[in-house]
Amino acid sequence: MLVCPVRLVGCFRELGQVSPEDEELPSIVEARGKLPVEHRSLVATYLRSASVYAAASGSATDCFTGERHIALNVQQTDGTWLWPASFAHYVAHHGVAVPEELLQHMRALEWRCPVLSREELLALCDKMSEFARALRKKQKRK
């Protein structure tokens, strides 16, 4: 069984971030307002302070308000989890739910996101590339 080196979070089926037809992704509409107000600032700050894993041109638009340029089109990571930069906006402004495992992870780190070194980011890139190759190979066999 293939296991992704990081856990993906903050991708929602309505946003088309991974695959628009991926019904396994959670609904951002259903997740809205589920994060308690007292956690929103802590969680959003943690998410925003993470290392950038990957970047592309463009920016995100808020799917609820239509506000443009809410975040750059980047993926961020703490080395354990990976999320789009727009996730912090949705947490802060719409109280979008965060998995309990991620909340526990943040609490254990006292709400301080580790900053990854260049070497750590490159090692993660290597692991993700290996995972992607193995996944493509597995899909070709089907």
UniProtKB/TrEMBL annotation:
UniProt organism field: Myxococcus stipitatus (strain DSM 14675 / JCM 12634 / Mx s8)
Source domain of life: Bacteria
Protein name (database record): Uncharacterized protein
